[in-house]
Amino acid sequence: MAELVNLRTARKRAQRTQDEQRANANRLAHGQSSHVRKLDAAHQAKAERALDGHRIDAGGNGK
Questions:
Q1: Domain region containing 19
Q2: What is the total count of domains within the chain?
Q3: Residue 18, Cβ neighbours under 10 Å: how many?
Q4: How many Cα neighbours within 13 Å face the side chain of 5?
Q5: What are 6-27's pLDDT values in tens digits?
Q6: The model scores a pTM over 0.85
Q7: Is 61 contained in some domain?
Q8: What is the DSSP letter of 57?
């Protein structure tokens, strides 16, 4: 006897896999994920703070 298939469930499953494939393609096409971008921004901000912390203050008093 043949196996019964719920067509609505099958369509939803097919739509989910298609959406996931499209999402993966967009991830590859549009670069890094948001957590990687945030991590890079945090590293850049820390490097800028470290650089500013080592800056020599050129005060106008001549000493």
A1: 7-53
A2: 1
A3: 10
A4: 7
A5: 999 999 999 999 999 999 998 8
A6: no
A7: no
A8: P
